[in-house]
Amino acid sequence: MDQLHTNVMPLRLQRVSQLALSIMMAWPLAGLAQETVPVKALGAVVVTATRTETDSAGVAGAVSAVTAEDIERKGAKDLRSLLADEPDVVVPSDSRRFGGGQVNIRGIEGNRILMLTDGVRVTDYRAAGTSNYDQASRDVPFSEFLKQVEVVRGPASSLYGSDAIGGVMGFITLDPADLLKGRSFAVGGQTGYYSADNSKRLSAWVASGNERFQSLLMVGTAKGEETDNKGSSRVQGNTRTAPNPLDYTQSNVLGKLVFTPSREHRLKLTAEHKESESDVDVQRVANGTSLARVSSNTGTDSMQRDRVQLDYEYLPVAGWFDSLALKLYTQKETTDNQNRQLRSNTASTCSSTTAGTMNCLVNNRYDYEQTHTGFGLQQRKAFTFGLPQEVVWGLDFDRAETEEKTYTTWTNLATGAVSNTLLGYTYPVSYFPAGHTDQIGLFAQDEIRAGNLHVTPGLRFDRYSLKPESTGLYVRTDGKDPASKNGSHVSPKLSLLYDLQPDWNVYAQYVEGFRGPNYEEVNRYFVNGSSAYGVVGNADLKPETSRGLELGSKYSGNRWGAQFSVFQTRYKNFIDYSVLGASDPRNIYVNGTRYSTYLYQNLSSVVIRGADWGGYWQVLPSLRLNAAFAIANGYDATSKAPLNSIEPRRATLAAVWTPSEIWGAEWRLRAATGKNRIDTSSTNYFRTPGYGVNDVSAWWQFRPGSRLNFAVNNVFDKTWYQWSDVRLAGVTATEAAPLFYSQPGRNFAITLKLDY
């Protein structure tokens, strides 16, 4: 048996951990004798990790932040580029059509990662099916609108409840004060060009105010094409290597009003609107037999998101609490996927697989809508009761209303006859019923300080309830009604942090997470009459749970700093859908014929363990080196099969040179080993080779607040692949043209920011 499955920690990982811990223990002692100036924090002030403002260097756990300065310096324009330098975080992207729409942290992804924008839940992610017709991405504001992006690794349900089973990502938008910077009025803008997708971006903002009233308005627009790769063949079919032609437009508006009538009270009203549309010509078609009759496929994908949020903060001069925060919000996101297919030499039923003599045109439309409405109440109190401590407690409520509709018509091109019956369905239909899911949670966390020791217990109780609603569009051939689902869960946490020195600590934490089954997993029902298969939800699903243990150390000095952690997390009752055996009574039967049936089921246990390290070294006053490394292994505890969502070992290295306040330059290396540990039981995946990609950038600040940035990415025009993209598309080892899934070659970006 593989040593990975028999040892508590792989031998190789033990050696890495021992070496890194030795360095962590020895390096600070060597540097302390020379340290004569005040220390610098390892990271930024973060909110997501503890729900209060905390220096990330003092958090027991692996936490990082990408600041507005980082975003601007790197020219980051989307979720993938925002997180490119986090080796244990990756954004899987659909190279065929939809791009990136989810986040993977330490091998856990999708709706198992809670994403928050200003504390409001981001809409659920829905993956594109095998036909690549529809997808609901997890949308966030323009990068130009962000003050900070925070990444919390590992389970965090003791503070956030359901969906924080694998981690939390917090997107925090700019406030008027961030742009005013002590002024009463500020106006500015940013424009940029990115050759990787031939995109142009433009944003502008205006802010004004005084001590009592402040306002902000930001607008942004973007227009671009398909993301480039290393392919050059532009034929139509499954040997195409060049990207599918695509054009997109995006726009985003963010407004804020802040009223501070006194130093005790603060009100903030936020309104955001974002929309996008892309037109794609999917020329890479007829891949295998599932779409053999499809000779052309074009689509239009639209998204619209609206958020209104009111935040109130009360800081009493004296009282039984130090602060009270109240949040009210509503957010609605609508996704509209439209598809137009020409099916040639097909059967009289306009099948995508069966050969015949007919030509037909199929028009599909998938509408997906989700609205989150809720509130949050949080209080904080610092006091001494035997020992100094700070308590945070509160209440969260969220209602998610979800609805999906599918429309289909097809036209016989020879006769002109139009039909809305296809695959055994008469459209419109819903593959899962409309309904709402209520989640309510009560939480409390207490940080107790006993000298240099910080002990932080936490506990949260959550109750969730899923209730379907009948619209007449949800029809099952087995005659069953949609099921309701409810349950509750308690998520504890315990962390210990010990300050060895004012700038050096070690920590250990035990954390738990959970995720209740969603609307689709409970009630999805889809039957494909042409291919004789179906997908069925499961009303008996149990919540997914996780239990994680993490050990680490952080050192934050003026000349250098580092953080290191080792972790192991066990996930139970993972929800997945797998094919049922031929004799299973839960199989779908249509007119006495058994269909190959996929059922959402709980897997017994999945284990992920690994280590990560990150640090900096101020070599010279004008030269700083940054580095990070991550390694993880995961497997199914029952079958011992590797977990395919685990990325290969990844590392980043950067040298930042700032000879003056006016200009500077940066070199970055992003590298990964080849992906070799793969579960090939269902798919014999293409194994991505290792890579090392170099980027260089420079900036010139020609006046305070105004800067020109220029970057050349993939300087040496390297051909490389990201494993998560290959896995997402199911690229096999026998793939005729894998270059289609390669990353962009040499490309450049230039941005200009003006602030007055």
From TrEMBL:
<feature type="domain" description="TonB-dependent receptor-like beta-barrel">
    <location>
        <begin position="294"/>
        <end position="715"/>
    </location>
</feature>
<keyword id="KW-0998">Cell outer membrane</keyword>
<keyword id="KW-0675">Receptor</keyword>
<dbReference type="Pfam" id="PF07715">
    <property type="entry name" value="Plug"/>
</dbReference>
<feature type="domain" description="TonB-dependent receptor plug">
    <location>
        <begin position="59"/>
        <end position="168"/>
    </location>
</feature>
<dbReference type="InterPro" id="IPR000531">
    <property type="entry name" value="Beta-barrel_TonB"/>
</dbReference>
<dbReference type="InterPro" id="IPR037066">
    <property type="entry name" value="Plug_dom_sf"/>
</dbReference>
<comment type="similarity">
    <text>Belongs to the TonB-dependent receptor family.</text>
</comment>
<feature type="signal peptide">
    <location>
        <begin position="1"/>
        <end position="33"/>
    </location>
</feature>
<dbReference type="Pfam" id="PF00593">
    <property type="entry name" value="TonB_dep_Rec_b-barrel"/>
</dbReference>
<feature type="region of interest" description="Disordered">
    <location>
        <begin position="224"/>
        <end position="247"/>
    </location>
</feature>
<keyword id="KW-1134">Transmembrane beta strand</keyword>
<dbReference type="InterPro" id="IPR011276">
    <property type="entry name" value="TonB_haem/Hb_rcpt"/>
</dbReference>
<dbReference type="InterPro" id="IPR010949">
    <property type="entry name" value="TonB_Hb/transfer/lactofer_rcpt"/>
</dbReference>
<keyword id="KW-0798">TonB box</keyword>
<dbReference type="InterPro" id="IPR039426">
    <property type="entry name" value="TonB-dep_rcpt-like"/>
</dbReference>
<keyword id="KW-0732">Signal</keyword>
<keyword id="KW-0472">Membrane</keyword>
<feature type="compositionally biased region" description="Polar residues">
    <location>
        <begin position="232"/>
        <end position="247"/>
    </location>
</feature>
<keyword id="KW-0813">Transport</keyword>
<keyword id="KW-0812">Transmembrane</keyword>
<protein>
    <submittedName>
        <fullName>TonB-dependent hemoglobin/transferrin/lactoferrin family receptor</fullName>
    </submittedName>
</protein>
<dbReference type="InterPro" id="IPR012910">
    <property type="entry name" value="Plug_dom"/>
</dbReference>
<dbReference type="InterPro" id="IPR036942">
    <property type="entry name" value="Beta-barrel_TonB_sf"/>
</dbReference>
